Amino acid sequence: MGMFVISKRYNGEYKFVFTSRKGKTIFTSISCKQKSDCEMMIAAIRDNIALFAFTKNGNLARKFFFRLSKGGLVLATSRKYSTELSLKKGINEIMLYVERAEILDFSEDETVFPPADEVFI
């Protein structure tokens, strides 16, 4: 199952990524000033993925990617894929798992794992 992961950028703004069931990033959102904006975009994507457009692109290096948009506003850009087939698989993964995707929030605390001296064996 896919997963949305909310985090902070170095400039203090928020973003989220959608990852595959294997943990690979499929797309990364635009920057948001408020975490609530990320949460609203995630809810909209989860609830109404059919209303969003996937615009497929390629570059001179023969890498393929897509942009996720709604009403002409680009909300996210995918990672680079080496083939059009893998790009299609990335989009299919979104369509299959986005409605059931969990949300992880790593934006509040930089220390996700405890220091080694606090781990009990």
UniProtKB/TrEMBL annotation:
Domain of life, per lineage: Bacteria
Gene3D superfamilies: 2.30.29.80
InterPro entries registered for this protein in UniProt: YegP-like_sf (IPR036913)
Protein's name according to its UniProt entry: Uncharacterized protein
Organism: Flavobacterium rivuli WB 3.3-2 = DSM 21788
